Amino acid sequence: MVAMLARWPHSPAITIGAAIAVITLAGGCSLPSKQSANADPPTPGTSDRATSKKPSPSLPPPPPPPEVGSCRQLTFVDIGRYSNTTPTTPCGKPHTAQTFDVATLPNKIAFEGVQIKNDAIQQRAAKTCRTAFVRYIGGDSATRARVRLTVTYFLPNQAGFDAGARWVRCEIVALKAERLLAELPRELEGLLDDGDAAVAKFGLCSTGEPGMERSRLVMCSQPHTYRAVGALRLGAGDDAYPGDERVSVRGKQRCEDLIVDLLGTDGGFTYSWTYPTAMDWQAGQRFGFCWHKRTT
Fold this sequence. Notes:
- The protein is of the alpha+beta class.
- The protein has one domain (about 15-295).
- It is about 20% helix and about 20% strand.
- It is built from 6 helices and 12 strands.
- The strands form 2 sheets. It has a 7-stranded mixed sheet with strand order 1-2-11-12-10-8-9. Strands 3, 4, 5, 6 and 7 form a 5-stranded antiparallel sheet that branches.
- It starts with 12 loop residues before the first strand and ends with a strand.
- Residues about 1-25 and about 40-50 have low confidence and may be disordered.
């Protein structure tokens, strides 16, 4: 999910012996839609991984690429913008974002006169950073789906882009709670290779029954009622939607089996199974989430 991340509908609760299986909805990390920040000046920085085109004589020099490894104190509002000029801060101090990769947009889509909000530009930037995130953060796809660590990106502002800058700044952020970013550790590369420790710190939890109107997704370090204990893959990227029965009924059984194995008991617990709709599937969501309700 780099998500990148869907919101799903819910089904009625089902009682099985001493266990209550609540079939509802979940969404992992929901980032704001990108918006213009044209009033922002360009951000200085250095990098040998991305390039800027030579400026036109009538334009100022393009802003150089940002520096890989730099950190910033961003807000949730910041990550919804196309561009960002927040000053860097030492990574040993509190920060909420880290630049883990800087790439260059290809000339076939980043040509002179195109707007940075252009769909092709935005889609390429998002895909580039999602791919880089998988390599950088480590772990398997199920582990990445169960944490509130995610990826966003920034482009030079329109003036900088028009002057020839073609870089994409890829950032790691963590969603602590609704519209609130969490502080990040200094070292992030390969963080999810040690899945248990990372999930304990950045795991996906819900303040109430997942998918209900008043429930909110949070990091598990925050007060919560349900914890996502499993992300179950329901199909491959090219597979057709399996149908409601498979994702609902069969998925619920897989979730129940996982909880039984995890707790070493076949009753006395409450769990929830959330799954993608056909529309979510079309958008790329391939995981259902298995949730366990806290008893204390």
